[in-house]
């Protein structure tokens, strides 16, 4: 995790820019739902705006209130190629003038149909056994 102190107008500008790249909801006939649960260590999410960005789609999949669980309706095309993607998570704490970022360099099969994903947002970066920096851990149920 890396946090930045920003002026209120800078935070609003970044949120506006991210909102412009928000994916439109997929056609109901061509979508499935992935349930994401978020674990974090320091109560960062309370009262914040949360963003989930897909590097594979080069767009924002979610921009809204931070919550411990988010159900994402995603285009079924994302389940191709094993459903792998690299995600970034952003948290905007406007009351503190802060933007925090958890970015990934490692792909995970997030988008398999009916998948339940637990994402642990780490307070410190960690290097895994392959030498890749991680700012979040992922576990799958189903």
What would your notes on this structure say?
- This protein has one helix at 8-20, and strands at residues 2-5, 31-40, 49-54, 59-65, 69-75, 84-85, 87-93, 98-103, 108-109, 116-127, 133-141.
- With 142 residues, it is mainly β.
- A 5-stranded antiparallel sheet has the order 1-8-7-3-4, with helices on one face. A 4-stranded mixed sheet has the order 5-2-10-11, with no helix packed on it.
- β7 and β8 (98-103) form a beta hairpin.
- The chain is globular.
- The mean pLDDT is 90.
Sum up the structure in keywords:
51% strand; single chain; 9% helix; 142 residues; 4-stranded mixed sheet; mainly beta
Brief summary:
The protein is mainly beta.
Ordered list of secondary-structure elements with their pairings:
Elements: E1 2-5, H1 8-20, E2 31-40, E3 49-54, E4 59-65, E5 69-75, E6 84-85, E7 87-93, E8 98-103, E9 108-109, E10 116-127, E11 133-141
Parallel strand pairs: 2-10
Antiparallel strand pairs: 1-8, 2-5, 3-4, 3-7, 6-9, 7-8, 10-11
